[in-house]
Amino acid sequence: MSASWPTAPSTVARLAAQAARMEAATTSAVGQLMVALPVLDQQQAGAALVAAVPIPVRGAARFLEELAGHLSAHPDALTSGSSLCPPVLLRLAEVLHTAGHPVVRPGCASCGKIRSDLRQLRPEGRLCAVCDARSRSATCARCGREGVRIAARRPEGRICYTCYHSDPEVLEPCTECGKSRAPAVRREDGQALCRSCWKQPLHTCTSCGKTAAAALLKSGGAICHLCYNRHHRPRRLCGRCGQLKRIARNARDGQPDLCDGCYQGPEVTCASCSRVRPCASRDQNGQPICATCYQRNRTGEPCARCGRTKPSTTRWPIGPVCHTCYTAVLRSPAPCPRCDTVQPLIARDDHGTEVCGPCVGFAADYSCRQCGRAGNPHSRGRCASCVLAERVTALLTGPDGTIAPQLEPLAAALAAAPSPFPAIQWIKESPNTELLAQLVAEGHRLTHQLLDALPPSRNQRYIRQLLVHTGILKERHEDLERIPGWLEHELEDKPAAHANLARPFLHWFLLRRARQRAAVRQHPASADRDLRRRVSVALDYLAWLDQRGLALADLTQDHIEDWLAGATSQRHYLIRYFLKWTTSRRLTRELNIPTIPAQEPQDLLDDDDRWQLLQRCLTDDSMPTDVRAAGAITLLFGTSCERVCHLTHEHLTFGDKHARLLLGRHPVLLPPRLAELLQHLADQPQPRPQLSRAHPGPRWLFPGMVPGKPTSTHGMTQKLGRHGIPVRTARNAALAALATDLPSPILADLTGMHRHTAIRWVLYARRDWAEYLAARAKEEADVSKEGRPTQGAPDSTKTVKGAPQDSATDGDGDPLRGRPDLPMSGCGQDSSGIMIE
Questions:
Q1: What residues contact 803, with CB distance under 8 A and at least 6 apart?
Q2: Phi and psi for 552 in degrees, rounded to 5?
Q3: Does residue 349 contact residue 329 with C-beta atoms inside 8 Å?
Q4: Is there a contact between 659 and 678 (Cβ–Cβ < 8 Å)?
Q5: CB within 8 Å of 716: residues ≥ 6 apart
Q6: DSSP H stretches of helix in 656-800
Q7: Where is the composition biased (Polar residues) (predicted)?
């Protein structure tokens, strides 16, 4: 029977004191941990401390006290990544990181490697064993070099690595090459291999599936160096940009840590182009090369998806994949036929069906760490949609730290962009976002008046239309309403007397008439350029009067003649509008301003060249669809480029047999090939993702870069010109051909032209025919009277301007007859190609 010995009172008191100390240390550590990491509750914090500091460990109370004191002095210790901390914080950070909490694990202050056993504490932080050994330098006892790393101890003293590798005590014959060298590794049988004969073992990376040498063995498999650098390399604050990124160059020689974006590599002579440039890569021979030569000389291999020989971006179970296919697959996740989960399909089963990676044992996670959606990876394990939402919030946050209620429709439209990648790029690089961020940071309510006060620019117009498109600002006739703001900036350096005349001239005369016309106009027309020119001519005329010491009341007809005599262009004739207004206000006497002489079209495209261009627009698949459609409409109907740009889906009507296009009051039938082009243009997706609109608007056939607006007239004209279609000459030729065969009322109704313009075109086109017929009649009369043609009579075999040519027409003068390459519908048609029902 065993005896039970009582515990001494001193022992009981000591154990009670230790328990009380442990309880107090645990309570303090839990409280400080919850303050440093608010996402933890008391139970989670206690479990993390137990995992990091087990209770049976000797000195656990002291460790917890050190932890509590450090967290109290450094509240950001778990998110800053600083290794100036007690060892218990390293273990706690690893436990919290494994549990998925948002912490930054401290790394070695020298190499950045994340380890939980950084034992050596230095002023700059804790060092791993390798960096600690590298930092210990001395004088080699054998070669005498100072400040070298010590490799071993010998009777004469400590020796460096160079002397160690040539030490006779270390050298032994290599099993494969037979040379006496320092062994790099040993086989299982104990035989040595030198560094030249030793081949690094190959491992299959669990991240990319690539079989590579020198893989880093981790828990759960191997990770190649490339995947380690991309996903597992520790992140620290960059000393240049201040962002938490992967460090490419550790701090040394007074230089801070540099991330991948800030570090460009050492500037040396490139082995390929021989230029001194930053060279962060090396060629096959180990020589440094610059980034340009590295990209140019990368060896390609057949892509397993598209078959093209290109440099591979990654390796999936299907094989090497180029960058184009890599992006296409990750941005289009689909349900896996095996597991029904939405994932990028990066593998194939035995039957060739595309499946996700986990179904074939390839553990590649492309899901967002923030929202959990698969595909569209962008940065730091997040998808592009989450990154876009973060960028939008940062862009539209006002000085009070929140998004103003007025800007919530814009924030919702940007965050819900159909393609987040272009939206992210736009927020990052566009000068429009710089202006928008500046306006938001000032905290003012965005109004038309606020934007009018800014200097006129493309960025100002874009931001205004963006706000109108999302319903923040009311829509207005922008071509007219932005002119007052332009005038105020023009008058900044003008005399007050000029400003007092220019303002009422614009507001009460020009804009009043322009608004009345815009209210009843059926077709779009931008009048802002004409109005600005009239105001600019008025300001120039007032400056011209000041130079001559004249007043408006003293103007005579001679002064008008002098002004027009010094004109270098027809722009000076626009002064009639200003003088008409001053006369109505009794500021000047009645003056006669001659009108600009009527001019006939100077440049007309040859008829054969016109049909060749039309044939090319209808049949050449190498040209863009919008260029083919716009060029064909211009060459066939003579429609202005401005009206072509403003065509919408509502202008098209597709029936069972024929398609019609509304250009004027009545629709015209379209040739089948042109109808196919417009149908394709109407059905194809927008070339640039459009933001959601607050109110339904027109669906443009030629959408522009500005939200809710068609492409600009100048941009379309330049685009057609680059493809060999001169807009002005092509339009003149088409209108001349139409005016030759159609009466002016029909021409005005079909093309939307003003009736007076149509009359002038008809008179111009048929005048040459009248002269031609008169000359022929006179010639026949002379021949019948004298039996021979008179001298100076026109030769009937010569081509008269505007007359149909035999090579392109038949006896009826129809250019389309004998042209089977331009198929038309079965309806009747005139010589211009317009089909009339």
A1: 768, 769, 772
A2: -60, -35
A3: no
A4: yes
A5: 630, 641, 644, 645, 702
A6: 672-683, 713-722, 727-741, 744-751, 755-786
A7: 828-837
Q: Is the pLDDT of residue 693 over 80?
A: no
**C-alpha 210 chain-centroid distance:** 32
Residue type, 301: E
pLDDT in tens, 249-275: 777 666 788 887 788 777 888 888 888
pLDDT band of 207, cuts 50, 70, 90: low
What local confidence, expressed as pLDDT, does residue 3 receive? Answer: 46
pLDDT of residue 814: 33
- Which residues in 265-303 are b (16+ Cβ under 10 Å) and which e? eeeeebbbeeeebebbbeeeeeebbbeebbeeeeeeeeb
SS3 258: strand
- Angle formed at CA 134 by CA 188 and CA 113, multiple of 5 degrees: 75
**Dihedral sign for Cα atoms in the order 744, 747, 749, 753:** negative
Other Cβ atoms within 10 Å of 81 Cβ, number: 21
Find the DSSP H helices in 361-495.
384-396, 408-415, 420-429, 431-442, 448-452, 458-469, 478-481, 483-490
Residue 483, burial from CB neighbour count under 10 angstroms (0-12, 13-18, 19+) = buried
- CA-based nearest residue to 364, from 527, 530, 209: 209
- Alpha-carbon distance of 369 to 201, in angstroms, equals 33
CA distance linking residue 363 with residue 222, whole number of Å: 12
Q: By the 8 A CB rule, do 633 and 614 touch? A: no
Q: Cβ distance 511 to 531 under 8 Å?
A: yes
566 burial (CB, 10 Å; 0-12 / 13-18 / 19+) is exposed
- What are the residues whose beta carbons fall under 8 Å from the beta carbon of 488, sequence distance 6 or more? 452
> pLDDT tens digit string along 442-459?
888 888 888 888 888 888
Geometric angle at alpha carbon 537, from 533 and 539, rounded to 5°: 115
Beta bridge partners of 313: none
Dist. CA 517–CA 519, nearest whole Å: 5
Grouping H, G, I as helix, E, B as strand and the rest as coil, residue 194 is coil
Q: How far apart are CA 444 and CA 459, in angstroms?
A: 18
The answer to whether 139 and 156 are in contact (CB under 8 A) is no
C-alpha span between 7 and 5 (Å, rounded): 7
Please state, as a whole number, how many other Cβ atoms lie within 10 Å of the Cβ of residue 5.
6
416, with CB counted inside 10 A (0-12, 13-18, 19+), is: middle
Q: Which residue has the tokens 């001169």?
A: 726
How many beta carbons lie within 10 A of that of residue 613, not counting itself?
22
Instruction: Note whether 192 and 172 are within 8 A (CB).
Output: yes
Contact 133, 110 (CB under 8 A): no
User: Global pTM?
Assistant: 0.57
CA 450 to chain centre: 28
Per-residue 3-state assignment (H helix, E strand, C coil) for 554-590: HCCHHHHHHHHHCCCCHHHHHHHHHHHHHHHCCCCCC
Amino acid identity, residue 252? R
Q: What angle do CA 601, 605, 611 make, to 5 degrees?
A: 140
Cβ atoms within 10 Å of 668's Cβ, excluding its own: 20
DSSP letter for each residue of 466-525: HHHHTTSS----HHHHTHHHHHHHHGGGS-HHHHHHHHHIIIIIIHHHHHHHHHH-SS--
Q: 118 to each of 61, 103, 257, 812, how far by Cα in Å?
A: 21, 18, 19, 98
